[in-house]
Amino acid sequence: MAINLRKFYEATDPSKTLVVNHPEDRKYYIDFSSVRGGDIISKLKQKITFFKPDDPTCTLLTGHIGCGKSTELLRLQGELEADGFHVVYFESSEDLEMTDVDIGDVMLSIARRVSQNLEQMNIAEPRRFKELLQGAWNVLNSEVTGVKVKVPK
């Protein structure tokens, strides 16, 4: 059987995120949970859906380029949506200059995407959400003055 090199390259390109819900991508998905120390996505899903369904959760997912972070997060998104949760997913590189990122940029990007998502769903933004956004904007744009630093001798 002859190998189609272009198709092989496309299937193994680490910069391409697999969307496991798409049948074409699903056939290329390999479950590496056994070498990652367990099924982290199932643990995240359980934390969100069972242990803290009414509370916000925060988890940092790290790894090198092409190791499957986005693929696994898209898998989690599909499973959460199947359970009736609403997920706001976006690629940070679409909003942020990846060579110059600070926490303020990240927070504003998240807030913008949540706000856009609420508009698309035709849900009025809660008043407290707007207040929170305005407060974050004020903090991020305020000057820091009068800071004293004690230098150890």
Which outline best applies?
Answer: globular
Rounded to an integer in angstroms, the radius of gyration calculated over CA atoms is 20 Å
The helix fraction, in percent, is 40-55%
pLDDT < 50 stretches: none
Order of helices and strands: HHHHHH
Count of the domains: 2
* Sheet with most strands: none
Provide keyphrases for this structure.
single chain; 153 residues; mainly alpha
Provide a short characterization of the protein structure.
The chain folds into 2 domains: about 1-85, no CATH class; about 90-140, no CATH class. The chain is built from 6 helices and no strands.
Commentary on this structure:
With 153 residues, this protein is mainly alpha-helical. It is built from 6 helices and no strands. 46% of the residues lie in helices and 0% in strands. Helix 3 runs parallel beside helix 4 (69-82) and helix 5 (103-120) packs antiparallel against helix 6 (127-140). The longest helix is centred in the C-terminal third of the chain and has 18 residues, at 103-120.
SSE arrangement:
Blueprint: H1 5-12, H2 23-26, H3 40-51, H4 69-82, H5 103-120, H6 127-140
